[in-house]
Structures are given as C-alpha cells and as structure tokens.
Amino acid sequence: MNNFEKINRDIAWCPGCGNFLILKALKEVLQELGFEPKDVVLVSGIGQAAKTPQYVNTNYFNGLHGRAIPAASGIKVANKNLKVIVISGDGDIYGEGGNHFLHAIRRNSDITVIVGNNMVYGLTKGQSSPTSDYDLKPKGNEMAYKSDFNPISAAIALDCAFVSRSFCQNQPHLKTMMKEAINHKGFSLLDVFSPCVTFNITNTYDWFKNKTYELDETHNPADRVKAFEKSLEKDKLPIGIFYRTEKPTFEENEANAEKTQQPLYLNNQSRSDILYKMLESYK
To answer: E strands within the chain?
Structure first.
C-alpha cells in the first residue's frame, strides 16, 4: 500500500474535480521518490485545492488565506531536512498570496509550490481569480479581468529557480513535472491546469486538452529569454519545464547558515534569550 494513502477520509470535492488527479499524482510521486511520511510537510492556505494536504498521510499545515508560502518558508528554515511542499489554488497563491509568491521567489526559499490552477474561485462559488480567462463569466462580476495574471511569465521575470506547468489529466506528464520540481533545489513552481467542473464551464477538460501542447527537446530550459517568450504564448499553451537554473537558496544564504548546519529546532537556546524572558514575564 502507498504509505501516503489516507484511508477512510471523506473528500469535499465535486465529482470530476481536477484536484482528484493532482492528489492521485502527488501520493504516487512521493511514494516513488522514496520519501517517508515523517519527512514531508504539505502546506496550504484556504480554498478547494488547499484541502489537498488533509487527504495525504503525512505532516501538514493549513494556514490563513494566501499565507501558505511564508509558513512553508519558516518550516524549511526550522528543519532543513524536511521536504516542504506548498499545494494550493490559483486564488490562494496568486491572489491573496501574491506578495509572498513574488518575494519567496526573490529569496529563493528551498520549497516546492504546486498550484492547482482552475482559473476561478471554487470554494467561494465562482468568482473570477487572478488567472481567469477573459471569456469566463464569473459569479458576482460581469466580466473577468481583461488581462489575466501570468504566473509563468512573472516567475521567469524574477529568475525563479524552477518554472514548470502541466495539465492534471495528463498524468504521466504531471508526475514527471512533480518529480522534477520536488527534486530541484530552490524555489520550484509547478502550475497545474485543473478544471473546476462546477463553476467554470469555459475552461473544461476538453478546452485544456485542445489548448495545450508539450514542450519538446528543442526547448532549452537554461535559456531565460526563450523561456519568457514561451510563457507568453496564448493560441496554444505550452506545458513542461520553461526555465531552470542553479543558485544559492535562502537557507544557504541566511545569516547563521554556517553555524547552523543542524536543524534550528535542535539548537540549544540560551535561557537569557529575549523571547524566553518575555514568555516568562507572562507566567
């Protein structure tokens, strides 16, 4: 049995939701990569995709709306030996969490961020999200934003360590992208097209199937300019690894990195520490 399989757990997604396919791939990938549940932490914010960690047999943290990335960054700093994976939705990561998304890329936190991108707010019943297609007619708003947020372009522009995209129905491709993203050192983005079958009747499984194509070996992920050009394509949407680079991580660059080779939680804290004194004062 898959060690990451959680038994007898009711799942609060509509039948046909793309999140089921992301969940399936994630559990299989964690198993195939040889991780143990105790060594993995899944982090999310609020939303339908953000429920994913609750359905995996491993450590998880559900934070506030849009605050998954700072929580994940803190967990990684506290214990560098953990594999920290953020898995949440386009509204949570690119909307409420947009500021954290941008600056964690700049810092190059050594975390993987998997975004279930259904181009709509599903939990709150169909409002437009940052990635909503202009043709979508969202609830509570007569039209989506004319210029949707392009997370792939934004990440490449910020020199993100790893930038990729996939489609949840293409399971072999999705699993390959997950493995590449999880294994890459530094901030790794995997944007996953994941249809919402209830509140987005525009961007359906067939729409994504007909609209996407896989990047082939002629694309060089080390070429940042070409990667950016690919990210701007609209007639057909590329999936695959757009950009990949190697550079020091936030954890390697932090002030005490040379002194704290072991996880921070194992460090002996002085009883004269200011925080300790403050806590003692409340007793």
So the answer is: 40-44, 59-62, 83-89, 112-117, 162-167, 188-193, 212-214, 237-244
